[in-house]
């Protein structure tokens, strides 16, 4: 992957996960739509983002695809993730949904395809075997899961080569048990809602830490995440200023005192918890 020559980078700009080089930083597109989504994707890629995350449920893949085209990059210079919704996990529907993603995104392949939420009504083994067949066909390059608890993630790894588990993770929600499982499997944890849907901006501890480095609370939260082994982030934003600001985290490093202060924040604030979500083990562990 190529990055702008003037972009300040460090050793964390990409991470090697199970021999796969993956951008540490990506753009989340949940709730972005239409021209707003298209412009955000194009701007992010032009600014130096090299991972775009979407999903069938977001109903914005056409706009994401147009933004990808607008950016003018070679397709092999950035990565795209999409997700199959939790009630489309039969083999036939997984294949149909991946085909629909490719059509709407105007691409020949997905770099990463995820099961969006676990669903006990479907065989997890069969769903993962279907993703493996799609990988063999070249339509997806890697596959994984999203919103899987540690025990469900462990089960998934019994059935296939799970590259990642995409879950809510930010300074106010602990994921230590899942991080242990992910690292043990040489997989990635992709942190969505890494800014706690704006809540990090109101936190005095993060603000005080940021003042040491000339950074804001959001940048501190993102830096804290990427300094953790096997963690990737996909903050969402629609404005060029915030897209640029979120990426501006590669010219400083948190010290041990900063990490201890962030570790001391309450870690039990789960924001995304629909009625079909799985029961999370040890939700207060952090």
Structure description:
It is built from ten helices and ten strands. The protein has 286 residues and is an alpha/beta fold. It has one domain: TIM Barrel. The strands form two sheets. An eight-stranded parallel β-sheet has the order 3-4-5-6-7-8-9-10. The longest helix is centred in the middle third of the chain and has 15 residues. It is globular. The two termini are 34 Å apart.
Task: Please provide a brief summary of the model.
With 286 residues, the protein is α/β, with parallel strands linked by helices. The chain is built from 10 helices and 10 strands. Helix 1 packs parallel to helix 2, helix 2 runs parallel beside helix 3 and helix 7 packs across helix 8 (217-226).
Helix fraction, binned, reads 25-40%
The CATH homologous superfamily is named NADP-dependent oxidoreductase domain
Which regions have little confidence, pLDDT < 50, spanning 5+ residues? Answer: none
Computed Rg? 18 Å
Look at the structure and give the mean pLDDT.
Answer: 95
**Level-2 CATH architecture:** Alpha-Beta Barrel
CATH fold assignment:
TIM Barrel
Number of helices: 10
Structural class, from helix and strand content? Answer: alpha/beta
Strand order of the largest sheet: 3-4-5-6-7-8-9-10
State the distance separating the first and last CA atoms: 34 Å
Strand residue content: 15-25%
How can the largest sheet be summarized?
A: 8 strands, parallel
The arrangement of helices and strands along the chain is EEEHEHEHEHEHEHEHHEHH
Q: In the CATH hierarchy, what is the class?
A: Alpha Beta
**Total strand count, please?**
10
